[in-house]
Write a structure and sequence with these properties.
By secondary structure, this protein is an alpha/beta fold. The chain has 2 domains: 103 residues, Enolase-like, N-terminal domain (Enolase-like, domain 1), CATH 3.30.390; 258 residues, TIM Barrel (Alpha-Beta Barrel). 38% of the residues lie in helices and 16% in strands. The strands form 3 sheets. Strands 4, 5, 8, 9, 10, 11, 12, 13, 14 and 15 form a 10-stranded mixed sheet that branches. The radius of gyration is 21 Å and the shape is globular. The protein starts with a strand and ends in a 23-residue tail after the last helix. It binds cobalt (II) ion. The site of cobalt (II) ion has 4 residues, from loops.
């Protein structure tokens, strides 16, 4: 029996927001790692782990993953917040890593074995205009990505107009661009009309709305996009407005992907069991780790919904590894979002998943199969980090949900 001896966080990337938890046992050389990554609240999560949760877990049997998950969850009394979920998720991943090492099996084997050969991923294509976008999509298709996300411009592109040409109040705050729902409703269907004209209906394409629209316009967009047969439309609504998915499903067949901001089962369970979304997009660490995500994947299977665990931008190779093992072993898997890591960043994580030809490949090492080189991690750590998500506003200065 391996007892938990030490739990600490290793910080890397600018501002140290890639926080990787290391759970060390009393068995020589036996430890596990997990992702405690939170780009906005890294210090809060690591404090919760090291000062609040760790002291309670020292001396416990590392094998009791389910019981540790339930006890940490209940001990918080107030639960299902992103900070606690991330802290709990990191420890949960590390305990599964330890269990895999003890069993001398990669995690996907413990989860029932592979039910696919590798993990198909979707790429992020974008362009400042339609020609540049087509070029970017074609590049990813040639690389082997089975699905490509299509965005006009950068983050949340489309629907933005120069602030100078928008009807703004005389005391308007400084802004280069402002967001307009109706412009977005023009731009994105026109974008897909162009893409289908140039690329045909063979390529599987998605689009991410980043929740920018008013809910009634989200319904309109989903309906307008129906003729272009998307692989899925992502985050057309903010988490506060998920009841509107019922209207969307009554209006059109555009598949819906949702959930990278979800932290509470009350957000995703009804959407799955009422078949109001087609792909659930929670981030493995933000749902509370591998333990709850295995349950989500099983729930999805019974209701014909699929998983598309969130990765992308600020995510790290450890969370990616956790998602990959779920992907390899879940029948309800749909597609996996890609990540962009530099060669220097990957060097910090020996055993990281290999992304090639639009697919993720495991190294078949026991547990998560990934470790962290603490010296190299320290080299990538700088004092200041990213300063929050882009703040988009409408012409009158009111904020648009990210
Ligand atoms: Co998204």
């Amino acid at each position: 029996m391996a007892k938990i001896q030490e739990i600490r966080c290793i910080r890397t990337r600018p501002g140290g927001y890639w926080a990787i938890v290391k759970v060390v046992t009393d068995q020589p050389g036996l430890w596990g790692i997990g992702s405690a990554n939170d780009v906005h609240h890294a210090d809060t999560v690591t404090t919760a782990i090291e000062q609040v949760i760790a002291p309670r877990l020292i001396g416990r049997d590392a094998a009791e993953i389910e019981d540790i998950w339930q006890s940490v969850y209940a001990a918080a009394y107030w639960r299902n917040g992103s900070i606690l979920n991330t802290a709990l998720g990191a420890i949960d991943m590390a305990l599964w890593d330890i269990k895999g090492k003890e069993a001398n099996m990669p995690l996907y084997q413990l989860f029932g074995g592979k039910c696919r050969d590798a993990v198909p991923c979707y790429a992020h294509a974008s362009g400042h205009d339609l020609d540049a976008l087509v070029e970017d999509i074609e590049r990813y298709l040639q690389e082997g990505y089975p699905v490509v996300r299509c965005q006009l411009g950068s983050y949340g592109g489309g629907g933005f107009v120069d602030a100078a040409s928008a009807p703004r109040p005389r005391n308007a705050r400084a802004a280069d661009k402002v967001f307009d729902d109706e412009l977005y409703l023009e731009a994105i269907p026109a974008m897909f009309a162009h893409l289908r004209d140039k690329l045909g209906f063979g390529p599987k394409l998605t689009h991410d709305v980043h929740e920018h629209l008013r809910p009634h316009n989200a319904v309109t967009l989903a309906k307008l996009l129906e003729p272009y047969r998307l692989f899925f439309l992502e985050d057309v609504l903010p988490p506060e407005q998920i009841d509107w998915f019922r209207q969307i499903k009554q209006q059109c067949t555009t598949p819906q992907a949702m959930g990278e901001l979800f932290v509470n089962p009350q957000e995703y369970v009804p959407l799955i069991t009422e078949r109001l979304i087609d792909y659930v997009r929670v981030r493995v660490s933000k749902a509370g780790g591998i333990t709850p995500c295995r349950k989500i994947a099983a729930l999805c299977e019974w209701f014909g919904v699929h998983t598309a665990w969130q990765e992308g931008g600020d995510n790290d190779p450890v969370n990616q590894a956790a998602a990959m093992h779920l992907d390899l072993s879940s029948t309800s898997f749909g597609i996996q979002e890609e990540n962009h890591f530099s060669a220097q960043e990957l060097d910090v994580f020996p055993g990281h998943a290999e992304l090639a030809d639009g697919h993720l490949y495991t190294n078949d090492q026991p547990g998560l199969g990934i470790d962290i080189d603490e010296e190299k991690a320290a080299e990538l750590l700088t004092a200041s980090g990213p300063s929050g998500t882009a703040e988009d506003r409408r012409a009158d200065g009111s904020i648009v949900r990210p």
